[in-house]
Each structure stands twice: as structure tokens, then as C-alpha cells.
Amino acid sequence: MSQLIVSAQEITNKKNTLATLKNTLETQVSQMETLNRSLDGMWEGPAKEKYAAALNIDIAKIKLFIKVIGEFISILSQIIVLYKTMEKKNIATATG
User: Fold this and answer.
1) What confidence tens digit (pLDDT) does each residue in 29-83 have?
2) Which residues of 59-72 are buried (b: 16+ CB within 10 A; e: fewer)?
3) How many CB atoms lie within 10 A of CB 15?
4) Which of 20, 32, 43, 92 has the greatest number of CB atoms lying within 10 Å of its CB?
5) Distances (CA, A) of 37 to 9, 48, 63, 88
6) Distances (CA, A) of 49 to 28, 52, 67, 82
7) In whole angstroms, how large is the CA radius of gyration of the chain?
């Protein structure tokens, strides 16, 4: 059986990296929306409407993904607190 050893600091580092990536993705979505507004005035017709509809669907999916990432980050924060609490308890028990 394999064994996984992890520390609260490792989890914190991964959580922080994930938060940074989430923020980057949010910025990129915002830039994409800005570019779409710029393009909006440059063309007309069915192609524009299809593109806008498809892009709006994609943006909605990405925003949902960003929300889920935020929830996962929150869960990781809870895990870190629990991990540290249990670690202190184990140390107290061992030094008893």
C-alpha cells in the first residue's frame, strides 16, 4: 500500500498557487469580455450573433468553473485549519 505524507504548509502552498491561477483566469475572462465588446461594433449579421451566443455560453461555463475553484480553495482552507488543530492535539498527546 502506498503512503501519502503531506504537511499543512504544503497544502497552504498549493492552495495559494490555486488562488493565484484562479485570479489569473478571472482576469483573462474579463479581458475576453472587453475584447468581445470591442469586436461587437465591427461586424453584423448571423455570424456575429452565433459568435456572441457561443462566447457567452463559454464565459458562463468558465465563470462556473471559477466559482467551483473558489469553493475548493475554501475547503482547502478548512482542511488546513483542521490539520493544524489535529497536529497540535497529537503533539500534546505524545508529549502528554
Assistant:
1) 999 999 999 988 888 899 889 999 999 999 999 999 999 999 999 999 999 999 9
2) eeeeeeeeeebeee
3) 18
4) 32
5) 42, 12, 18, 53
6) 22, 5, 27, 50
7) 22
Q: Give this prediction's pTM.
A: 0.83
- 7: its cell numbers: 504537511
Taking the C-alpha atoms of 42, 45, 49 and 51 in order, what is their torsion angle to the nearest 10 degrees? -60
d(CA 84, CA 67): 26
- Torsion angle, alpha carbons of 48, 53, 58, 59, to 10: 90
Inter-residue contact 19 to 75 (CB < 8 Å): no
Closest CA to 62 of 36, 83, 39, 89: 36
Amino acid, single-letter form, for residue 15: K
